[in-house]
UniProtKB/TrEMBL annotation, chain A:
Compartments in which it is found: Cell membrane
UniProt name for this protein: Putative D,D-dipeptide transport system permease protein DdpC
Pfam short name (any one): OppC_N
Keyword Transport recorded: yes
Transmembrane segments: 25-47, 92-116, 128-146, 152-168, 252-275
Organism: Meiothermus granaticius NBRC 107808
UniProtKB/TrEMBL annotation, chain B:
GO MF assignments: dipeptide transmembrane transporter activity
Protein known as: Putative D,D-dipeptide transport system permease protein DdpB
Database matches in CDD domains: TM_PBP2
Coiled coil: none
Gene3D superfamilies the record matches: MetI-like
Source species of the chain: Meiothermus granaticius NBRC 107808
Lineage: superkingdom: Bacteria
Domain ABC transmembrane type-1: 108-338
UniProtKB/TrEMBL annotation, chain C:
A biological process term (GO) from this entry: peptide transport
A Pfam cross-reference name: SBP_bac_5
Lineage: Bacteria, Thermotogati, Deinococcota, Deinococci, Thermales
GO cellular component, one term: ATP-binding cassette (ABC) transporter complex
Gene behind this protein: dppA_4
Solute-binding protein family domain location: 71-436
Top-rank taxon, per record: Bacteria
Database matches in InterPro entries: Peptide/Ni-bd, SBP_5, SBP_5_dom
Signal peptide stretch: 1-20
Organism of origin: Meiothermus granaticius NBRC 107808
Coiled coil residues, start to end: none
Keywords associated with the record: Signal
SUPFAM superfamilies named among the record's database cross-references: Periplasmic binding protein-like II
GO molecular function terms attached to this record: peptide transmembrane transporter activity
Name used for this protein in its record: Periplasmic dipeptide transport protein
Length: 288, 348, 522
């Protein structure tokens, strides 16, 4: 058993990957943005005031020393709201991706390794979810359960998992025929064990790449939901909701809607760049 | 003899394939309606209260529930719905008390028109930019295209819409504002629901141009993310093809750049691009929800938004059913197109 | 070939200049008309439906200008009310020569048909006839082609009946035309959804849902409009309305933000029309035994703790009327008393007297919607911060409006932030729901059972003499103000911005705008 090849790259190729990553400009840009974002979410709140505090006499004021990004239509500090929004968006992104990857991987593994009728059933089920326009399904779920952030996460996850299922199933199908899996089976390993020890680890690379792209996608979808009123509700400083609420003031106070929008763009950009880089590094054949 | 045999085998294969795919279409449509129905059953809030509001009397609420079958157990409601569906009846909207099918007929053409326009925008921007980038790999044009593509993929549709409206309509006045026509334009009689076609049918070229003009901004907004993706895909596919021996040979032999691209590269690069396109058209419907909100576009996206917020599930089910149908049909069309372009593909 | 020729010609003409309609005889009214679901006067119960049907159909009696207390003749020239001992007999004499858009004359049979139709269809507004006026099929009779008699039981208020006839439910339809379009005994409901058959100044020319409603002058109407056409253009986004108004694409904008209203107010090319709405934005407190708000002193403390002026002046930028009593400005019985002035110290003292000197924690329910001009959550947050200053800790719970209603109706809410509009322009539309526990409306939802208030409301509803009625409402409103379960926050203004070219725009408290009076300077 121990002699069977295990998942994961060897140390030598790992260091090569790191080198390749470091030479890639957009990968480094993505990483930098990502680190800044995490810092903003974690340490940023130390440099803010209460994101919910209204100061009606001071509304729609342009950026100043006191309000770095100005104030919004209720006199709230836009900078503080954008910073607090970082943690919200990251949380939404991470939870959506974690949840959908979990469901997708389980479905994909089961379908790919069990095959036959189970495979057929699960994949048809997956097809149905592919056919839904994601935002509309998410809207229906959010409307039914009530619009709030947790339901947004559930709703977006509900439309994001099928990609993982297909990905992992394809990987599992390919691996099933490979010698080390055959060997493990021949040695009498139970299916579950084979899944856990061999197929799962080998499927993780594409899942990781996909997850990185999906972070950006999930954040965009969640922001879109909030924009049309099915996601985070005011006064939550969610970026999409902030753009939505401030959009009627774009001519007098563009900072209130542009700041959260730029935050969304940079965040999504960071994850997309990271996704590109990860794919280049981990899976050179998949490069476009 | 052998050719004829092979041909008839191909026809049989193809036929079986088509049957299977059509079955798949039906299955997907059933699936999405079932899923939506399932969701509608977990609603904690009351659709009757959502429809009737604060001042409603108890007996009005009761009557509303009875009239719309909301007082029956879930499985009965589902059976009733499915039975009607098999007879081509999508039920009645709880909000407008109008047959859902009438609402869909009213709003869908505007969405298709916008989506098609966005699709062409994506094609017209995405493909040429991708080709240009590939031909200039790592030179400034390539870098610019790649940056634009990255930004295009990261910008929320709703923000792009707000921004373009503010800049190109409100500030510069280069493009018209929300809506499908100028408010003073004479709206043509409704025949197809496509404004561009109806204005032509009404022999009103000025209004036709007005309708096209109104399409530009929303189409750019809706198509931008697709254009970005398409540019990346085209670039990737082109690079792959360009690196292949026969192209390099052709180029070395002195064939001009454009001839090479036209004859070899573009055709081969079309395949992966086509795959993306199928997904794009389906995904446009999601983007339409946001774009239509910002551009006051009378399409299915705004309809489903209003319906969902008033818990009008028959209407939401109608929209998802339609979306499922569109998705499955487009997928089928793309597959067939794929086969047409690359006859080597087998229908297994 | 012809197509090619057109395209060539059009190219030469240039794009985007489609201007097929005369700009001075067509008026474009921009707004969020999404709530329009039917143009049937007997069914419509939404704001936009009222706005449209009021101009397509005439009613027997109506209000003119902004006055909602003096009835004026409509299709009926004269009317009178007789007390028969068993009930009331209301007789209407129709004027001769009023014509429907079809050219037919408006007669008594059309009036009776229209009433029967509402009773048969049982639409969302039909309770006005059945519950308020206690009408039954057969209550209305045509005595001759120009005389209609309606019998009301003793329990109904004839004044309330006459008042609710001014609402679009009282719109008279052309019975022959509607019968001709009946499908499966639906009383023409499907057809009238997007067609019109009335005698009003306009006819419904076309309705492109979510796009535009086109009303064209009715050539046969007694009240001839000054404009040929009024188009309601769907522009749900306030920002889009602002830009369209500035560029002259629309003449009137309906849903601007307080900031936009302020900016337009100082722009000489526009005028801001301020009108009152009959809506009251209020806080409901559950007075149930065991609820923290069961003690009237706690409810008084809340009224002292809320800074009404700050809400009206700074949150709404003055787009609301300060009011503390339960009958809105514009109706008989309106009481402008402002008994409570912002006084946190007094609030704290009252809380101490009530035995809760350190306050308490509770839930404040509000909807995921817009409360007049701001998101409900923002208004709730303002109230939360005011209450916090006297030690009352409100936890805001924001849910869908229908869910708020479900909890509120089941008497399960602790504190709600909601609004109420009377069903018809009569003080009883507020007095009974807010005072009479047994009416199963607002007093019931807040578990406030005060027999004195209930009795006063009943008495006032049936009092035929306006002066006596007003006196009764004064006693009632003051009683509810001090003891009731409400903290009334404000009565929102309905502000509309018009181009200075537009003349004749008048809007009353039930949001009626008579389009026939509108005109436009070149």
């Amino acid at each position: 058993m121990a002699s069977l090849p295990t998942a994961g790259p060897s140390t030598r190729s790992a260091s090569r990957m790191v080198r390749r990553f470091r030479r890639n400009f957009s990968a480094m840009l993505g990483l930098t943005l990502f680190v800044l974002l995490i810092l903003l979410a974690v340490l940023g709140p130390l440099f803010t005031v209460d994101p919910l505090a209204q100061e009606l006499v001071n509304k729609l004021k342009p950026p100043s020393a006191q309000h770095w990004l100005g104030t919004d239509q209720l006199g709230r500090d836009v900078w503080s709201r954008v910073v607090h929004g970082a943690a919200i968006s990251l949380r939404v992104g991470f939870l959506v991706v974690a949840l959908s990857a979990l469901v997708g991987v389980v479905v994909g593994l089961l379908a790919g390794s069990l095959g036959g009728a189970v495979d057929n059933l699960l994949m048809r089920f997956t097809d149905i979810f592919f056919a839904f326009p994601s935002l509309i399904l998410a809207m229906a779920i959010a409307a039914a359960l009530g619009p709030n952030l947790n339901n947004t996460i559930l709703a977006v996850a509900a439309v994001s998992w099928p990609v993982y299922a297909r990905l992992v199933r394809a990987q599992a199908l390919a691996l099933r025929e490979r010698e080390f899996v055959e060997a493990a089976k021949a040695l009498g390993s139970r299916t579950l064990r084979v899944l856990w020890r061999h197929i799962l680890p080998n499927s993780l690379t594409p899942v990781l790449v996909q997850a990185s792209f999906d972070m950006g996608g999930a954040i965009l979808t969640a922001a879109g939901l909030s924009f049309v009123g099915f996601g985070a509700q005011p006064p939550t400083p969610e970026w999409g909701a902030m753009v939505s609420e401030a959009r009627n003031y774009i001519d007098v106070a563009f900072w209130a809607s542009v700041s959260p929008a730029v935050a969304i763009i940079l965040t999504v950009l960071a994850f997309n760049l990271l996704g590109d880089a990860l794919r280049d590094v981990l899976d050179p054949r998949g490069r476009d | 003899m052998a050719t004829g045999y092979r041909l008839s085998l191909w026809v049989i294969d193809m036929f079986a394939y088509l049957i299977r795919r059509l079955f798949f279409v039906v299955f997907v449509v059933w699936g999405v309606t079932f899923a939506t129905f399932f969701i509608s059953q977990v609603v904690p809030a009351d659709p009757a209260l959502a429809a009737l509001g604060d001042n409603a009397r108890e007996d009005q609420i009761k009557e509303f529930r009875e009239r719309n079958g909301l007082d029956k157990p879930a499985y009965v409601q589902y059976a009733v719905y499915m039975n009607k569906l098999l007879h081509g009846d999508l039920g009645q909207s709880l909000r407008t008390s109008r047959p859902v099918i009438d609402d869909l007929r009213e709003f869908f053409p505007a969405t298709i028109e916008l989506s098609l326009a966005a699709f062409f925008v994506a094609l017209l921007i995405g493909v040429p930019f991708g080709v240009i980038a590939a031909l200039n790999q790592n030179r400034p044009p390539d870098v610019i295209v790649r940056i634009l593509a990255l930004l295009g993929g990261a910008t929320p549709v709703f923000f792009l819409g707000i921004l373009l409206l503010q800049v190109f309509h409100a500030q510069l006045g280069w493009f018209p504002g929300p809506g499908r026509l100028d408010p003073y334009a004479l709206t043509p009689p409704r025949v197809t629901g496509f404004m561009t076609i109806d204005t032509l049918l009404a022999h009103d070229p000025r209004t036709f141009w007005d309708s096209l003009y109104h399409l530009v901004l929303p189409a750019v907004v809706l198509g931008s993310a697709s254009a970005a993706l398409l540019a990346r895909m085209t670039r990737g596919a082109m690079l792959e093809v360009l690196s292949q021996d026969y192209i390099r040979t052709a180029r070395a032999k002195g064939a001009s750049n454009s001839a090479v691209i036209l004859h070899h590269a573009a055709k081969n690069a079309a395949l992966p691009v086509l795959t993306v396109l199928g997904g794009l058209l389906g995904g446009l419907l999601s983007g339409a929800v946001l774009t239509e909100t910002i551009f006051s576009w009378p399409g299915i996206g705004r309809y489903v938004t209003t319906s969902a917020s008033s818990l009008d599930f028959p209407a939401v089910m109608g929209v998802t059913l339609l979306a499922g149908l569109v998705y499955a049909t487009i997928n089928l069309a793309v597959d067939l197109l794929y086969a047409y372009i690359d006859p080597r593909i087998k229908y297994g | 070939m012809q197509l090619v020729k057109w395209l060539g010609v059009s190219l030469a003409l240039g794009a985007g200049l489609a201007m097929a309609q005369d700009r001075t005889s067509t008026l474009i009214y921009g707004g969020d008309w999404t709530d329009l679901i039917t143009a049937d006067p007997g069914v419509s119960y939404e704001f936009t439906g009222g706005l449209v049907t009021d101009n397509l159909y005439e009613t027997l009696v109506k209000f003119e200008g902004t006055d909602l207390s003096t009835l004026k003749p409509g299709l009926a020239e004269k009317w009178d009310v007789k007390n028969t001992g068993q009930g009331w007999l209301v007789t209407f004499n129709l004027r001769k020569g009023s014509k429907f858009s079809t050219g037919r004359e408006v007669t008594a049979k059309d009036v009776v048909y229209s009433i029967e139709r509402v009773l048969a269809i049982k639409g969302p507004s039909s309770f006005l006839y059945t519950d308020v006026a206690n009408l039954k099929p057969g209550s209305a009779k045509a005595l001759d082609p120009y005389t209609v008699q309606v019998a009301l039981p003793k329990t109904a208020s004839p004044q309330a009946f006459l008042n609710l006839l001014t609402f679009n439910i009282g719109g008279v339809v052309d019975s022959e035309e509607v019968k001709a379009h009946e499908q499966n005994g639906d009383w023409g409901k499907a057809w009238l959804t997007d067609h019109s058959a009335g005698s009003g100044p306009f006819v419904l020319n076309r309705w492109d849902r979510n796009s535009q409603v086109v009303l064209t002058a009715n050539p046969n109407a007694r009240l001839q409009p000054k404009l040929k056409q009024v188009i309601l253009r769907y522009l749900p986004e306030p920002q889009a309305q602002r830009v369209a108004l500035e560029s002259g694409e629309i003449d009137i904008a309906e849903n601007l933000t307080p900031e936009m209203l302020k900016a337009f107010g100082s722009n000489p090319k526009f005028k801001v029309y301020k009108s009152d709405n009959l809506r009251l934005r209020y806080i409901g407190m559950n007075a149930k035994e065991g609820s923290p708000f069961a003690n009237p002193k706690v409810r008084e403390a809340v009224r002292y703790a809320i800074n009404q002026d700050d809400i009206i002046n700074n949150l709404l930028l003055g787009n609301a009327t300060k009011i503390q009593t339960i009958i809105p400005k514009g109706l008989l019985g309106y009481n402008s008393a402002t008994y409570y002035t912002y006084n946190p110290a007094r609030a704290k003292q009252l809380l101490a007297e009530a035995g809760v000197p350190n306050g308490f924690e509770f839930e404040l329910l509000t909807a995921t919607a817009t409360c007049d001009f701001v998101p409900c959550a923002d208004l709730a947050a303002k109230i939360q911060s005011d209450l916090a200053k006297v030690g009352l800790k409100a936890n805001i719970k924001q849910i869908q409006n229908s869910e708020v209603l479900k909890i509120y109706r089941a008497q399960q809410a602790q504190m709600v932030l909601v609004a109420w509009s009377p069903d018809f322009p009569d003080p009883d539309g507020n007095a009974t729901p807010m005072s009479d526990y047994n009416a199963k409306s607002l007093a019931y939802r807040n578990v406030w059972n005060n027999p004195t208030a209930a009795k006063l409301a009943q008495q006032a509803a049936l009092e035929p003499t306006p002066a006596k009625r007003a006196a009764l409402y004064k006693i009632l409103t003051e009683l509810v103000l001090k003891e009731g379960p409400y903290a009334i926050l404000y009565q929102p203004a309905q502000n509309t911005v018009l181009s200075v070219k537009v003349e004749g725009y008048v809007r009353n408290g039930q949001n009626q705008v008579r389009f026939e009076n509108l005109s436009k300077q070149p």
